[in-house]
Amino acid sequence: MNSRLNYQIAVLTFCFLPHVSEMPVWASAFGFVFLALALFTSFSGRQILKKPILHFLTLALPIATYAQFGTLLGPEPASTLLTMLVALKLHEIRSPRDEKVVMTLNVLVVMTWLLFSQSLFTTSYMILALLLVGVGFMSLQSPDRRVLSLLASTPRRIGLDVLVALPLFLVFFFFFPRFSTPLSNIFANQQTRVGFSDDLTPGAWADLVQSDEVAFRVLFTEPVRTSQLYWRGLVLHQTDGFSWTRGREANFVAETVPGSSETRTIDYEIILEPRYGRTLFHLEQPLHLEIKDRQVRNRVLNRETHYSLAMPNIARLSLQGRSRLTADGTQESFAPHDLQIPENISQEVRDLAARLKAAPLSRDPLAISDEVLDFFRESGFQYTTTTPEMPRIDDFLFRVKAGFCEHYAAAYSLLMRLNGIPARVVIGFQGGEYNNYGNYLVIRDRNAHAWSEIFVNGRGWIRVDPTTAVNAARIETGDYLNPLFAGLDRNSFFAQVLQSSLTYFEAVNTRYILFLLDYTSETQIAWLERLGLKNVSKKTIWAVFFFTLAPLLVLMLYLVRKRPKNLNPLSVSFKAIKARLESSGFKVSHHWGPQTILQKIDEHPDRAKLDLHKQKLNRYIELAYGPSSQEEQNQFLKEL
Fold it and tell me: Where is 348: in which H helix or E strand?
């Protein structure tokens, strides 16, 4: 059993685990198989993956990754390929040099996770992984000591390294110029969060609404009720009778109708997670929405038809918003496609729409809307997030009669159009979970929601949420059941302690995120101006950065040169062998390795008198590139 190889496998597994959630299933499976086979090799001494197989996999894995993503550039494909190749590299370890290469690659594997998450948990996990890698490097410098024996001395040695690196970290964090656009956006692709895209097919959100991942957080300037909070994302106009797509959109950024009742203006800040492509979410009827960082604001915000980004976003954003909460609609007019009805609608659905008119020849949109909602309420419809596959709207309306908000919004909007009333579907989020420790709202994937809007002359577009007809409590509370509490009594002591702990950690994590987000290019300039600098520009920031970095690098170089040298006995031995060859009249070039020297000796005319040196050189190769203890290396040096 090779204890150092086992440690390499353990460290790589630890660095590999966070990537599993972002990697394709097949890639994760390959990674775990490579790790398992490396562990088998360590215990049995049998190499399963021979060189031809390794060469084949080295060529096949990039091809498979390209087939999956359509590119090798970008966070997802690059990190997927990297983790698989590093796991494969475990099967090529033959020498301490190979071990050092794998340990260095472990650092790269764990650091790439920062492209997907910058939470407090991720940072803590990364620090722990780097500590484990540090122990691995120490074990490589101490071949006679077991890895576990190093753990006792690790805290002090790692602590000293951290103290040396801390000034560099502070200089880079505070003085390195902030980029106006995240580097990761250069290779951003068009993919959005699985289950939330630019169209809506009822049933497609089955996985999304079971997820507890955070979509965004919101800080308000004043208290609001969650039932009032509809976080608008995309407006869908075109339908095939079941699915809805964006089609040709009208601009929904409009003023409210003069004379609106119950109008209330509210300010808020959104911290948007980087998982929803170009879409920006906001409360209805926005009066103002912009990215907090001014340098990013003017380059990526696009308001042609809706609030969105110029390219898919994979960096966390902070948005400042102001919206008008009102019971009335907007002045925005409807377009012909808001009345579009596909030809494949069955006669059964058309007959139902005709029966739902409030009275024969009635054209009152609100009255017809009430009839449709009463139909859902009184015809045995149920609210559920798990439904059988329904390829047609007829299945939902007449047979299954159970579904999620997607089903109700799609069916309601179609029935209203069949009665000649402009209707459309809006997708986004509703409600949220209030964090008492941090005084902000958390909106998670499980808060994803779809609702409808109908056009009423004189009032504009009016929001109608058909889900209220079958599950009003969902809208009033503004939250779904946390999957962690499934099967638990929410009032039990254990559940309350768990909820309180999760809420507290969420608040701490949010403060950490805000600290990172708030240190923008504007903040950096303001901070330097407080230090006495005037008219701070990019050139000024670069000058300050190099001015503070240069003396630190000089100091660190001085400390490294002054450190007592702990010479490797094998390095000393190799130099001694080359010196003796020189004294025997054999010229040795400084860039020759031991194998090259052996080859040159065999080609030398007087190779017989160099035979003793050749034996010593072969013994050096055995110790340097094979398993050897510190005692063997020291003994070899003494024999020289």
Answer: helix 347-355
The span from the CA of 436 to the CA of 223, in Å, is 12
Amino acid at 528: L
Express the helix, strand and coil content of the chain in percent, nearest 5 each: 55, 15, 35
CB atoms within 10 A of CB 549: 16
Q: Among residues of the chain, what percentage have pLDDT more than 90?
A: 10
Contact 598, 577 (CB under 8 A): no
State the pLDDT confidence band at 64, using cuts at 50, 70 and 90: very high
The beta-carbon contacts of 515-520 under 8 Å, at least 24 apart in sequence, are 516/118, 517/271, 517/292, 517/316, 517/318, 518/318, 519/173, 519/174, 519/178, 520/178, 520/292, 520/293, 520/294, 520/295
Q: What is the pLDDT of residues 151-173, one digit of tens each?
A: 555 566 667 777 878 888 888 88
pLDDT digits (tens, 9 = 90+) for 41-57: 888 878 888 888 999 99
pTM over 0.85: no
382-383 and 433-435 beta bridge pairing: unpaired
d(CA 159, CA 257): 64
The pairing of beta strand 402-403 with beta strand 282-283: unpaired
Residue of higher predicted confidence among 256 and 63: 63
Q: Are 620 and 594 within 8 A, CB to CB?
A: yes
Nearest to 430 by CA among 397, 454, 456, 406: 406
Q: What gap in Å lies between CA 321 and CA 325, rounded to an integer?
A: 13
Structural contact between residues 231 and 220, judged by C-beta atoms closer than 8 angstroms: no
Residue 39 C-beta-side C-alpha neighbours within 13 Å:
12
In 298-361, the DSSP E strands lie at 301-302, 308-309, 317-325
Give the span between the Cα atoms of 444 and 438, in whole angstroms: 16
Contact call for residues 282 and 270 (beta carbons, < 8 A): yes
- Ramachandran category for residue 247: left, alpha or beta (phi over 0 → left; psi -120 to 50 → alpha): left
Query: What's the CA gap between 483 and 461, in Å, rounded?
Result: 35
Give 396's DSSP letter.
Answer: I
Please state, in angstroms and rounded to a whole number, the distance separating the CA atoms of residues 177 and 94: 42
| DSSP-assigned states of every residue in 91-121 | GG--SHHHHHHHHHHHHHHHHGGGGT--SHH
Is the pLDDT confidence value at 106 over 50? yes
pLDDT at 224: 76
In this structure, are residues 266 and 283 in contact, taking their beta carbons and an 8 Å threshold?
yes
Q: What is the pLDDT of residue 250?
A: 45
* Residue-wise pLDDT tens digits, 540-595: 889 999 999 998 888 888 877 776 555 677 788 888 888 888 888 888 887 788 88
Classify each residue of 386-416 as buried b or exposed e, where b means 16 or more C-beta atoms within 10 Å of its C-beta. Answer: ebeebeebbbbbeebebbbbbbbbbbbbbbb
Residues 6+ apart with CB under 8 A from 505: none
Q: Is the dihedral of CA 596, 599, 603, 605 positive or negative?
A: positive
454-507: pLDDT as tens digits: 988 888 888 999 998 887 666 554 455 555 555 556 677 777 787 788 888 888
| pLDDT over 50 (residue 79) | yes
CA distance 573 to 152: 31
Which candidate, 607, 588, 610, 584, places its Cα nearest to that of 597?
588
CA distances from 43 to 2, 38, 47, 70 (A): 7, 9, 10, 39
SS3 sequence, 463-523? Answer: EECHHHHCCHHHHHHCCCCCHHHCCCCCCCHHHHHHHHHHHHHHHHHHHHHHHHHHCCHHH
